[in-house]
Amino acid sequence: MFDPFLEQLNQGLLAHGGEQVAAPGDFAEKRSSERNSLIRSWLWSVPGFRRWRVTRLDAGDSLQVLNSVAYPALDNEQPILGIDLLWFGARQKLVAVLDFQPLIQDEAYLARHFQGLRQLHARYPDLSGEETMRSFDPNKYFSPWLLFCRGGAEEASGSLPAAFDLFMQCYWELTDKAPSGDQTMAAERIQQLQIDYDRYSAERDPAHGLFTSHFGKDWSDRFLHQFLFPATV
Ligand code: BLA
User: Fold this and answer.
1) How do residues 85-125 score in pLDDT, each as one tens digit?
2) 39: Cβ below 6 Å to ligand 1?
């Protein structure tokens, strides 16, 4: 389902000097024979970023996932890239979340980094519904212009592919001009906020139960703390 998106993401990473690095140990690939599912993850070494991870879960008709988070280098205050795409095939249900995750909710910071995403948000009203967040706080590490859609096949094959393309283009444009002269955040602050992002996300991430049901508690705990949000080790 999300293979063309993964391909698109990988192309962008390669075009920006990214090199794929194997994810450590059994995080690279884990299978569940009972649930007939496979989860694979990759790390990328990318100029301007201190960590870029990508995860793809293939559980057939029951669930398809593409998830990615990019942490900019500590001299770069630009938002964290957040991608979470889920497709529940049996129910034909899409959950798509694409955001430039702001380190702070400050007006000047948002003005510096969100012109592109704001336009994109306006252009794709069907992906920009005012969905309610159940586990996260929309005012913490989410932007006012995130693309967040709980939809179906129409959105998944309709506007999402083009919106994903533009979303990535827009993030790369931000990256290409960063760190810019009007950046105001110090490296220590950026670091602290990125660490806090991991702690917050690890606490709230609704995926842990799902991972546990497929791959067991031990692996899921380690995956959450050591791979997805490593500042929480
Ligand atoms: C929701 N994300 C979800 C849900 C699952 C996952 C199972 C609940 C589905 C639902 O609300 O119907 C799945 N999350 C995952 C998986 C991974 C993960 C498989 O971290 C890891 C491989 N989530 C992110 C990122 C963003 C994000 C980077 O991991 C930011 C763009 C957002 N996911 C996000 C949001 C929701 C969600 C906003 C809705 C949660 C809510 O209602 O509060």
Assistant:
1) 999 999 999 999 999 999 999 999 999 999 999 999 999 99
2) no
